Amino acid sequence: MHKTADPSLVRPSPKPLRLGPAPGLAAEFHPAARPLDDGGTRALMLYLHGGGFTGGSLADARERSELLAAAGADVVALDYPLAPAHAFPASLAAAFDALQAMATKPARLTGSPHTALFVAGEEAGGNIATALSLMARDQHAPALAGQLLISPMLDPQLGSASMRDGECGGSECVYAKGWQAYLGTCANADHPYAVPLNASRLSGLAPALILGEVGHPLNDEARRYAATLREHGGLARDLTLPAVAAEHALNPIHEFLRDAARRALNLPV
Question: Going from the N-terminus, what domains does the chain have, and what CATH number goes with each?
Answer without folding.
Answer: 7-264 (3.40.50.1820)
